[in-house]
């Protein structure tokens, strides 16, 4: 199943892809099943019931004619650094023995087709195409063998980074949390529609149509099950939480000269079986 979250004049909506088009309902209208966040908190059965309702009662939704939102409004966005060996190498760092973990705020991301903001205090805005994991089942101290049971589905993520701020200190958080500097979307694809652990999917990033990153999710150093299990040792994972699994080689920082995103640029993160997360870069208002 593939769902999108969106906003129109009538309010916030949810839509299901069926027969090559999206069928959606908006909050306050008849048969509205709830937001994706509501449905994830209610459990897998409710998500399937919602799919049946949307397929039966939903009106056609053109994704180009609505405001696409991040599929979920995450309580936590947990990001993994250096999770592809080729990216660790281009950064001049060793492959880690344990995942490098940092977090992002929900205020730092936008949905597909929304502008990513180039801040007025920096020109060093970098792209990072990533696979996003969306948690569907609450858990703490989850063993690896059952970790994928806690995953509702997957999406695309652009871990937009303000590199000069990121690298001023050993802690990356400030450079990863500028308002509206990253993105999530366009859709949530449920885990049953993809290979186990979303492994073996082609992942590509294009900047103004030029391919700048190309890899496969099979190259993840720490796979999805390992990440879910390890993170749950520290804190409870809740429905709607997002894990951004890291980026492959090709980021702008590692190039000579560096390749930064500029106002007017178009960045696209494409993951096989999930879709393409497209955003235009817009300067922060003066």
Automatic annotation (TrEMBL):
For this chain, one GO molecular function annotation is: hydrolase activity
What biological-process GO terms show up in the record?
carboxylic acid metabolic process
- SUPFAM superfamilies in UniProt: FAH
Checking Pfam families in the record gives:
FAA_hydrolase
Enumerate the spans annotated as Fumarylacetoacetase-like C-terminal domain: 76-282
Q: Which InterPro entries match?
A: FAH, Fumarylacetoacetase-like_C, Fumarylacetoacetase_C_sf
Q: Which UniProt keywords apply?
A: Hydrolase, Metal-binding
Family from the record:
Belongs to the FAH family.
**Cross-referenced PANTHER family:** FUMARYLACETOACETATE HYDROLASE DOMAIN-CONTAINING PROTEIN 2A (PTHR42796:SF4), FUMARYLACETOACETATE HYDROLASE DOMAIN-CONTAINING PROTEIN 2A-RELATED (PTHR42796)
Q: What is this protein called?
A: Fumarylacetoacetate hydrolase
Q: Which organism is it from?
A: Sphingopyxis bauzanensis
Taxonomic classification: Bacteria, Pseudomonadati, Pseudomonadota, Alphaproteobacteria, Sphingomonadales
């Amino acid at each position: 199943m593939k769902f999108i979250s969106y906003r129109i004049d009538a309010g916030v909506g949810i839509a299901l892809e069926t027969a090559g088009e999206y069928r959606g309902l908006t909050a306050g209208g008849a048969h509205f099943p709830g937001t994706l966040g509501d449905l994830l908190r209610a459990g897998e059965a409710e998500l399937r019931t919602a799919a049946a309702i949307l397929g039966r009662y939903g009106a056609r939704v053109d994704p180009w004619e609505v405001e696409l939102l991040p599929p979920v409004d995450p309580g936590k966005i947990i990001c993994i650094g250096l999770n592809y060996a080729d990216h660790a190498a281009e950064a001049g760092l060793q492959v880690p023995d344990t995942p490098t973990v940092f977090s992002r705020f929900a205020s730092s991301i936008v949905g597909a087709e929304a502008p990513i903001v180039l801040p007025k205090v920096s020109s060093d805005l970098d792209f990072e195409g990533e696979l996003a994991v969306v948690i569907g089942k609450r858990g703490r101290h989850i063993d690896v063998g059952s970790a994928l049971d806690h995953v509702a589905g997957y999406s695309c993520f652009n871990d937009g980074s303000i590199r000069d701020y990121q690298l001023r200190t050993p802690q990356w958080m400030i450079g990863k949390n500028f308002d509206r500097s990253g993105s999530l979307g366009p859709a949530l694809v449920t885990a049953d529609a993809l290979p186990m652990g979303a492994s073996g999917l082609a992942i590509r990033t294009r900047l103004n149509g030029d391919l700048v990153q190309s890899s496969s999710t099979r190259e993840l150093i720490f796979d999805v099950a390992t990440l879910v299990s390890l993170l749950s040792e520290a804190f409870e994972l809740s429905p709607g939480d997002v894990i951004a699994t890291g980026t492959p080689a090709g980021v702008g920082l590692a190039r000579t000269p560096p390749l930064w995103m500029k106002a007017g640029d178009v960045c696209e993160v494409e993951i096989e079986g999930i879709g393409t997360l497209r955003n235009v870069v817009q300067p922060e208002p003066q």
